[in-house]
Structures are given as C-alpha cells and as structure tokens.
Design brief:
With 126 residues, this protein is an all-alpha fold. It contains three helices and no strands. 67% of the residues lie in helices and 0% in strands.
Length: 126
C-alpha cells in the first residue's frame, strides 16, 4: 500500500460520519387515491370466503378422524406405534386448527361487516 492510499484511509476514518436523518413519516391522509377504501362488500366477501374454507376444512377434518378411527396403527414395534400415534395426532390437530382459524376469521369479518353497516364508519387501518 502506498503512502497516499494510507493517508486517504486515515482521513476517511478520522472524518466524522454524517448521521442519517430519519425520514419524515408521511401522515395518513383522509383519502389516499392510491389505496381504495374497504367497504361492507369487501368484508362480506371475505367473511363468505373464509366461512366456505372453514366448512371445507371441517369436512376434511371429519374425514381424517374417520379414516384414523377405521385404521388403527397395528405395528409389532412399540416405537413404530408411538410414531404413528404422534403423526395421527399431528394431522388431526392441524386439520382442526385450519378449520377453527378460518371460522374465527369469518366470524370476525362478519362482525366487521355488521359494524360497518350500522355505524357507517370505516375502521381505522394501521
């Protein structure tokens, strides 16, 4: 490294770094034309979609439970039986988790739909 390169490095290190100024946050405007406002129809369509998914997931969950009830694990190895029972529990649990997640989202959107109909106000988005 030459003396000139070392000197320029030392100057760069010795100069105080300019602190980055935080960007000014844009204040939310009442109506931003780039973002369409959500209305009761959006909430209703979301609630119906989520309700349909919950209903389908419930059907899948019932079929999964029926399948595992009709086909119990019968392995000679105790470890294999434990693994099979653990997998069965995991699959059944995940199927009912999907069912109730969709159902609660649909319930929340239904309540939001009713609130937007009766109050006429749009909820504040974060």
């Amino acid at each position: 490294m030459t003396d000139q390169e070392q000197h320029s490095k030392q100057e760069a290190l010795s100069q105080p770094k300019a602190e980055a100024k935080p960007k000014a946050e844009a204040k939310p405007t009442e109506q931003d034309p780039s973002k369409p406002s959500k209305g009761p129809l959006n909430y209703l369509s979301g609630a119906l979609t989520s309700g349909l998914l919950a209903w389908l997931a419930l059907g899948v969950s019932q079929r999964v439970v029926t399948y595992f009830m009709l086909h119990p694990p019968n392995y000679s190895s105790r470890i294999a039986t434990n693994i099979a029972v653990a997998m069965k529990t995991l699959v059944i649990g995940l199927s009912f988790l999907a069912t109730f997640s969709c159902a609660f989202v649909g319930l929340g959107l239904s309540l939001l739909f009713l609130r937007s109909l009766f109050t006429g106000k749009q909820p504040e988005s974060t």
